Structure formats: structure tokens, C-alpha cells
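Sample entry (263 residues):
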Amino acid sequence: MRKPQNMMSTGENVSDSHLERKALKRPDSFTVAVSGFFADLLQNTRGLIMILGVMIAAGVALSWYSNQRDTVSHQAMDIFYQAEKLLEQESKKAFPQEAGAQDPSTKKSESHAFLSIDVDSKFPQAIAKLREVSDRFPKARAGFEARMQLGSLYFDHGQFEKALGWFIKAESSGSEKVDRAAALSSLGYAQESLGKPSEALASFQKAISVGEVSMKGDLLLAIARCYESIHDLAKARSIYDQVSKEFPGGDYSKTAELLKSRI
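Predicted structure, serialized as C-alpha cells:
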């Protein structure tokens, strides 16, 4: 009776051992490949979702920034236009004789543009509004325009020191070549008006190095004029010759020839 029991026990052990070996059998290559494919797909899908999420977030942020910038730009321009309107109104009050001229054929009195006046007292509201644009929107286009307007107001009415500061601020904030060239050119004229031809020469040379072709003729004439002021007549003649060569037959060359003949 014990022998069958031993046999059954042995059989059970054999069966259990077979099952254990079967359970421990390594998966075949196909199973590994399929499992690996889905694992990679899951991992890559998660990565792609993350990348897509980052791209969407960046797009939303960029769109928000662009909209904010446009909103600020429009707001700045609105205030700048308000300043120009105030300047027009205050000009009519300051110079009623010109504002009252109705007949286009009537010869007006000499323009007030270059009269030496106290700009701050004549245009208090316009000045305040232009300063507001400059302070609140330093990087906006309207901010640059406000600084140039302020500099021009002071320059046109003989307050060259005040004009100087605004043109310097405008030059540092100009985003386009033509903006920087215009600000540097205006700065040069202010320095020249203050009797500082050497400083003016440096500003005009810096302006021409910006590469704004539309201003080159005027800048070259200004440079030649500064060389005359510092008594470097040979250099002045050389610049006048350059103007005649680069702008043959035009107003620039005629002006250059005339000025050179007076040296």
C-alpha cells in the first residue's frame, strides 16, 4: 500500500516540476518583439503628447504676448494722437494770428516754427501728454515718436539743450534704421546749434554708418559743414566732391558745388 502512495507522490512531484519549468520558460522572440513595440509606442506617445503640449502652451503664450503688445501699441498711439491734438490747440492759442488766416492767397506772417519761446509754458498740456507717452511706453513706436516730437519742439523754438536730451533718448529707442538715423541726425543739428561742431560731426558720422540711404545726401552735406566749422577745409572739399560724385546733376550736387566754391 505504501508503494502506490510513493508512486503517486513521485508523479505529483514530476508534474509539479514540469509546470514549474514551463512557467519559467523564456518567452519567444515574437512575444518579446510585440511587447517591445507596444512599450515603445506607449513611451513615444507619451513623449509626443508632452512635446505637443509644450508646443500648444508656447503658441498660446506667444499669441497672448502678441495680443498684449498690439493692445499696448494701440493704447500708446491713442495717447500720442491726443498729445498732437493738444499741441494743435495750444499752437492756435499761442499764435492766433496764424490760426486766423483764412485766405490761402494771404501772405502769412513769418512762421512761428523757429521763434525762441518757452516751450513748456506755451504747450503745457501737450508736453505733459508727450512725456506720458515716453514714460509709459518706452519700447512702443509711439514712445519713439513722442521723444522725437519733444526734441523737435524744443529745437524749433531755440531750446537746444532740452532738445539734445530727447534726441539722445529717441536714438536709444529707435527700432528701425531710419529711426536711428533720424534721431542721430537731429542730435547732430542740436549739437551744431550749441556750437559743438566736433560732437555734431561724430553724430552725423554715426548716423551715416547706420546705412539709411535716403538720408545720405543730407548727412554728407552736414558732415562737410562740420569739417568747415573745425577748419579742416581739405576734408570738407573732399566730402563735397563725394556728394557731387554720388548725386550727379541733382540738388545735392548743386549745393555741394556751391558750398565748396565758397571755401
